[in-house]
Description:
The radius of gyration is 26 Å and the shape is rod-shaped. The mean pLDDT is 85. By secondary structure, it is mostly helical. It starts with a helix and ends in a 24-residue tail after the last helix. The protein has one domain (32-185): LemA-like domain (de novo design (two linked rop proteins), Up-down Bundle). It has six helices and no strands.
Amino acid sequence: MVFGIVAIIGLVVLGLGLILIIWAIGIYNGLIRKRVDCENGWSQIDVQLKRRYDLIPNLVETVKGYAGHEKGALEAVISARARAVAVPAGDVAGRGEAEGFLTASLGKLFALSEAYPDLKANTNFLSLQEELGSTENKIGFARQHYNDCVARYQTARQEFPSVIVASAFNFAPKDYFEVKDAETREAPKVKF
């Protein structure tokens, strides 16, 4: 009789332990999925930023042909692009700051088209401007998706009881993709 009670208590404890392990595995896997979503979101931003970086030299060369003496604006774009490209892949805050400077310098470059009617009418310039505008929209959507993924991940990391599993397995916080400077928060104005 005593042996039967001990066996039942042992099975109950074993069952509760098994349930606890399955619960922890479920939370762990959920946190992994959310972390991978964040990494995927970041890589989507990276793809669009690389596309943007590839378009910029073509745009600068086109503008040079019409507004070569506007050296300051052209050099600012080239410098901002180089700065953005040099930011390490995982540095979300640094990338946000560098992208802000690049966006501001592109806005100044597009403002030049107003002063040069021939440039404004150039089909190559218009095509590049349209492509860059489309890329800016894609970057905006990718940033929004990434920040949404980070929000879900951060929420899951901080909710109870997930916080226990997150701290036990060192699920580090993720940074949001933010542009600090208010002027650079806006995409370059693309006017035709």
